[in-house]
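Subject: sequence -> structure tokens, single chain

Hey, anyone have a minute? Need the predicted structure for the following. Not urgent.
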Amino acid sequence: MSLLKTVEAKFFQSEIPYKPMGKYVHFLTVRITESYPLFQTDSELNKARVRAGVKDKTTISRLSMFKRKQSTPERLVGRELLRNYGLMTAEECEYNVAFAMDNPDCIIYGFAIGDSGSEKSKVVVDTAFSITSFDESHETFTLNAPYENGTMAAKGEKKSDGKLDGEIGTVTARINQQDHILPQVFFPSIVTLKDPTEASFLYVFNNILRTRHYGAQTTRTGRVRNELIGVVFADGEITSNLRWTQAIYDQMKSNNTLNAPDPLDEDDVITSAKNAIEALMADEFIVHTDLIGDAFVSLINEVKALTGSEKGIQAILQKADAEAKDYAKKHISKKKTAAKAGKE
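Reply:
Had a minute. Here:
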């Protein structure tokens, strides 16, 4: 039974195929920071030196949001939902420890467990880049770790020899500096799902909509909102995140809506993002159906209505789980048997 009325069945596979069949759906997402997230490696914010626009050949540094910084939080949200509705337990499937290999998370997002088996992810996410430059998009903060009395000074503690470890009123050295990404920094990102079934399409769609925290220290900061502006059904991959970002930059520059050092206006960004991707898709040489802007409204409303009710989200998860278990029974068990035979 079909869950969606606004999308034609021809865009979906009837079941999860074992081999690539040339159907793609691309989720056009603008990720908007709403606090001070950290996208970093080795204590430094990730950044890249690239051209400002497609037309503007000025070289600038941009913040980078690596692919795992995007996909991992989204799949963890999906796993949380599967546990919440009784379709997976923490004991049978633990992320990066012991995968069950037969649930929607494992089959859609992939897994690798040495000789026990592996499954390639059907979700493709590439590095996203900030529209604004690194200098305009981050700020350095001084961090401290006060004692329980609320001050940076503490009474010395006695050592085993009875002497004080530090004088009374000694100020702690637990002060550090850390670069943080500012609020209202925009990262255009295309999330691609290969050979979607209707259920896997809705599963990934829901994960993107629900995910609210990205990057390091996700319990304290890292608030990010995903604004979907459309989806593209195609028989191949489309433009990169970087080129889309550069095209948005060109649009905003020509419209005089880059007002550094002030943050970008969200309405201006969304309008430029839609215009830029429509122009880029017009240059593509693949077969594609674009649901962008007004054409996307009915779909996003239907998806939100489905995922916003307990009955609707259960229907999505149950259908995705049934497809995953059917796939695992047909293909994963065969790979495990073959690996075992090879060892013997």
